[in-house]
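Quick start: read one record
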Amino acid sequence: QVQLVESGGGLVQPGGSLRLSCRASGIDFNTNVMAWYRQAPGKQREFVGDITEIGTNYYTDSVKGRFTISRDIDRHTVYLQMNSLKSEDTAVYYCNSPRYTLWGQGMQVTVSS
């Protein structure tokens, strides 16, 4: 069964770091793109970045240089490492499989002092 289960998230101060994990059951990372999205209060869900089948990345401009998406193929897990966090990064973050149109359950990230 194809499934995405996220973990991580929480409250962090501005300038801090946080890592989200997404365990993807039933998805072969060698043949599938995996992506991260986020949705801030009152806003539409937006693309954050992705990791391709060959391990290359693409990021939206607002997170370039601060966020890193990686994967562990053996652990079937994709990671979103977030550094230098800002208050505007506060959102619910979702792991996504475009091929399966599948979403994780979402993890709240709150950046506040």
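The radius of gyration is 13 Å.
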